[in-house]
Amino acid sequence: MKEKQLELLNKIRSMAEEVTQFQIEYWKSFSDFGIWQFWVVILMLIIPLIVLFISIDKGKMLLLGFFGLNYHIWFAYVNSFGISLGLWEYPYQIVPFLPSFALDASLVPISFMLLYQWTLNHKKNIYLYSILLSGIFAFVLKPIMVNLHFFHMFKGVNYVHLFLFYVAFFIVSKLITNLFLWLQQKGN
After folding, report:
1. Per-residue pLDDT tens digits for 67-84
2. What residue ranges are annotated as transmembrane (predicted)?
3. CA of 57: how far to CAs of 111, 123, 132, 143, 152, in Å?
4. What predicted TM-score, i.e. pTM, was given to this entire model?
5. Which of 97, 101, 88, 91 lies closest to 138, judged by CA?
């Protein structure tokens, strides 16, 4: 490894450690157990999990879980990327290292999982309803979150961009799920 490369890696690691310390300090000061916003974020994590546990179709659990995991991964990656680029932020967090954990891991993917289940059980068009759900998240939930300072956008990011992200995550997740279903059928 070259000296310049090692020097830059050491600088990146040092700066990352410093940012982590700032995140912990911020969380302790403004986003811990003592504020109501923390408990709202906890509810955004726990309530969808309870609803999912009660209402998931046990016969389709693996299909729905695979789809939901796909959505979660794409949503979490892009959310993390957007935070890193300074495109948006989540001022209230469950833990300092996972700024949008409640949305990434619970509220959004579970909503899409339950929508998928509903469209399968009622023979409805998943694509149409996913666009509607994406619109609800982008044009209803996110503005509420912005007004309550649970979410901030920067550098020209707007609700249309968020809507397109929600739709894109759905399409990619559905395509990957369809691919695996096709491979499973082909293997049988």
Report:
1. 999 999 999 999 999 999
2. 36-56, 63-88, 94-115, 127-151, 163-183
3. 14, 15, 22, 32, 36
4. 0.92
5. 88
